[in-house]
Amino acid sequence: MKLKILVTAGDGIGPEVTNEAVAILKDIASQGGHDFVFTEKRIGGVAIVQDGTPLPKDTLDAALAADAVLLGAVGGNEFNSLPPDKRPEAGLLAIRAALGGFANLRPAFAFKVLAVNSPLRPEIVDGADVLFVRELLGGLYFGKPREWNKAKGEAWNTMRYTREEVARVARIAFGLAAKRRKRLTSVDKANVLEVSQLWRATVDEVAKEFPGVMVEHQYVDAMAMHLMNRPCDFDVVLTENLFGDILSDESAVITGSLGMLPSATIGGKVNLYEPVHGSAPDIAGKGLANPLGAILTGALVLRHSGGLEAEATAIESSVRKVLEQGFRTPDLARGNTQGITVLSTKEMGAKVRETVKQHLVNA
Ligand code: IPM
Ligand code: MG
């Protein structure tokens, strides 16, 4: 299997966590005789500083020529006073738009041994396995008009969707639900917003193509509560861009840490892979970052761009095994610390790497 992977590690903890993911992918390539070619380019704050723009042309060209883009994180406090279109985040939004992936898959899975890390009771989180499908190219993030009119003291953004934009992401979500527990929850605010009414009507249309999948609709405010009260009731959760951004961070409560969540964006020219967490500038460069979200993102690269299901599963089972052996990064070491060994970013990466190697030898 040949795979050209562009690595855009970005800012803050991005480079540290991405390094660990890449090391594992390299091992898997050499062990399985795969030809993975890695290229590195700048994005985000580091690109603003060195190239004067958060998404240099060189990075964009390389991304469009790749089979998969693996991104670390973007953002930093030094850019906080810049307007949205000049910030590191603008580079991320621009690469998302250019690659064209509109379905952002964010699996949130409760590892039994991490239940102690969740503020929710173990019996509530145990067994939770939710797949968020977040629409990534529409809604308030990209809708026009948008402006902060300082003279008027007024600012506006636009939540806009077309029927086609909703239908295409809904089809992906239903398709995934059909292969899972066959339940789809669509999240909107149809009691207030026209755009949500279009969303709901379109989801119901698409639902007819998937008679085997049970569909329900939830308002986003109620959903925020249900997710915490009864996370195990949800299978695939389909949402628009901003609601998905908010609910996927909320789902970190289920897994115990935002550092555990991976994501894959599919449906466009080139798939984009990024952990859900941000650049965490406060802990950057200290070896404190949790690389598991990035490592699990690596598994999604293998699954969705490489078709290497066994290898993707090997990474996921290895992460589970390492956690079961009591190894933790500091974000996961709260609560009961008995039988727990706290590791640095690199040490955690090395543990998973070792475990994946053994797993593939034994397979
Ligand atoms: C995410 C992040 C991004 C988003 C930011 C960094 C632009 O929060 O991927 O969830 O809002 O999409
Ligand atoms: Mg977010």
Automatic annotation (TrEMBL):
Residues given in the record as Mg(2+) binding sites: 221, 245, 249
Tell me how the cofactor is bound. Binds 1 Mg(2+) or Mn(2+) ion per subunit.
Q: Which residues form the Isopropylmalate dehydrogenase-like domain?
A: 4-352
For the protein in the UniProt heading, the enzyme class is: oxidoreductase
The residues that the entry says bind NAD(+) are: 278-290
Enzyme Commission code(s) on record: 1.1.1.85
The entry assigns this protein to a family as follows: Belongs to the isocitrate and isopropylmalate dehydrogenases family. LeuB type 1 subfamily.
Quaternary structure annotation from Swiss-Prot or TrEMBL: Homodimer.
Free-text function comment from the UniProt entry: Catalyzes the oxidation of 3-carboxy-2-hydroxy-4-methylpentanoate (3-isopropylmalate) to 3-carboxy-4-methyl-2-oxopentanoate. The product decarboxylates to 4-methyl-2 oxopentanoate.
Q: What is this protein called?
A: 3-isopropylmalate dehydrogenase
